[in-house]
Amino acid sequence: VVVIKASDYTFDAPASIPAGYNTFRLSNGGKELHHVQIVQLLQGKTFADFTESMKKQGPPPVWAKVVGGPNASAPSGPVSEATVKLDAGNYALLCVIPSPDGTPHVMKGMVRPLTVIAASGEKAAEPKADVTVHLNDYGFVMPHTLTKGTHTFKIVNDAMQPHEMLVVALAPGKTVNDMASWVAGGMKGPPPAMPVGGVTGMAKGTSNVIPVEMKAGEYGLLCFMPDAKDGKPHVDHGMMAQLRVK
Fold this sequence. Notes:
- By secondary structure, the protein is mainly β.
- It has two domains: 2-117, Cupredoxins -  blue copper proteins (Immunoglobulin-like, Sandwich); 131-245, Immunoglobulin-like (Sandwich).
- It is 7% helix and 43% strand.
- The protein has an eight-stranded mixed β-sheet with strand order 2-1-4-7-16-13-10-11, with no helix packed on it.
- The mean pLDDT is 95.
């Protein structure tokens, strides 16, 4: 298990890990929401190349591939976990959630390098999932009713664009639309839902496995990744869903 501790605005995480299936466990000791976006640096690019590229406006470079990671963990809330298969090479860990002032945490220094080293010996297996979720442009294909308890989700991105899946437990009487509106409005006032896990952005063909402990009630799934064409978050294109846990 790769333990990552988030604060405002840094990650405490190992510098290197072995290749293969790695379970990233995120705990949040900060006052704001944080997640871990894992970015694979292709074409022999380095962390220095990546930080230099972030200074430029426009879409991320083609050699920076998002491969998932644990999505938002609320301040002093439950840990968020995601199992990700990583090849040897250079990676970056970052948080792109914005502060109330609109600045993404990565621009406040919440980014660090990770080296994945070719592993010898016994390799971890992919955890067995009981729910599979397929992401497309712009939706979540999965059952809309689940039983209470801990579920293991395998999330697969079949779409052309990168997508994420944020799982939130909705407050009584609130809907997934209320959560989308709250985020769009700068996250002011009491939140209509609490993040309980999920996966950060994943490129086409990528999958992650996550455990989520679910109590009876209503849950929301949302994707806030910016659209390749218009730059709007995917929730604006309708990429949200609501499910009931009995």
